[in-house]
Amino acid sequence: MIKNYNNISGLLLVNKPSGVTSFKVTHKIRKILNVRKAGHCGTLDPSATGLLLVLIGKATRLQGSFMKKDKIYTSSFLMGITTDTGDLDGNIISKSSILDVDIEKIAEAVETFRGEILQIPPMYSALKRNGKKLYELARRGIEVERKPRKVTIKQFNILSYKHDILNVKVFCSSGTYIRTLAKDLGDLLGCGATVKTLRRDVIGVFDVKNALSFDDLESLGKIMEKLTPYEKLLELAK
């Protein structure tokens, strides 16, 4: 364990596994490095996987810059199902037939989501209202009004559609909720949809292919080998 925490500043890429919270990843890094400051750049849902950027030490000052970077996700949507959370962690609200939902109809609907669109953030999200995270309110059965927000869908590509599973890749601006994208697509098709799997592949210039695994965070050597120094981040944050 490192004692001189003031000397450690930089960025780590972590491939978050399903079932682990973004907070737990950050806490693990903070503990093994014995640093006071560490923070991630954008929460991934516990069931989601993929790229998490964790800033350490004075690099946490750059959090706002990296939070704004565009992102690429790979996701599978379960068609014909809606849940209260927008993914399979939630309770099923409705089930609908998808017999008349074919790839042509889906492709036509997907076209309407490309470019600048409005999204209403889900209640089950880390956004805050009066100091309380929305998901904390949602778990207590409280729903509050959320204003639509502008996001940009730069690419929304269908990878495959088989049975009731639609596999997609989405290149989008910061602030985009893939769970909301799935819900809105399902609503437009009249059958409903919810996220089955979600992986974040890219944030800005950073790719999950270069990330540490969660198990790698047990190794101080691997962490220090993969740490991007603060000086380099100053250029990347622009």
Describe the structure.
The radius of gyration is 19 Å and the shape is globular. It folds into 2 domains: 96 residues, Pseudouridine synthase (2-Layer Sandwich), CATH 3.30.2350; 132 residues, Pseudouridine synthase (2-Layer Sandwich). The strands form 3 sheets. Strands 1, 2, 3, 4, 7, 10, 11, 12, 13, 14 and 15 form an 11-stranded mixed sheet that branches. Strands 5-6 form a two-stranded antiparallel sheet. The chain has a two-stranded antiparallel sheet with strand order 8-9. The model has no long low-confidence stretch (mean pLDDT 92). The protein has 238 residues and is of the alpha+beta class. The relative contact order is 0.23. The protein has 7 helices and 15 strands. It is 24% helix and 34% strand.
Comma- or semicolon-separated keywords:
single chain, Pseudouridine synthase, alpha+beta, 238 residues, 15 strands, two-stranded antiparallel ribbon
First-residue to last-residue Cα separation = 32 Å
**Proportion in β-strands:** 25-35%
Provide the CATH top-level class of the largest domain. Alpha Beta
Largest sheet at a glance? Answer: 11 strands, mixed
Rg, Cα atoms, Å: 19 Å
The CATH superfamily of the largest domain is known as Pseudouridine synthase
Structural class: alpha+beta
Order of helices and strands: EHEEHEEEHEEEHEEHEEEHEH
- Count of individual helical segments: 7
CATH topology of the largest domain: Pseudouridine synthase
- Compute the number of structural domains: 2
- CATH architecture of the largest domain, by name, is 2-Layer Sandwich
- Describe the global form: globular
Instruction: State mean pLDDT (0 to 100 scale).
Output: 92
Percent helix range:
10-25%
Total strand segments: 15
Low-confidence stretches: none
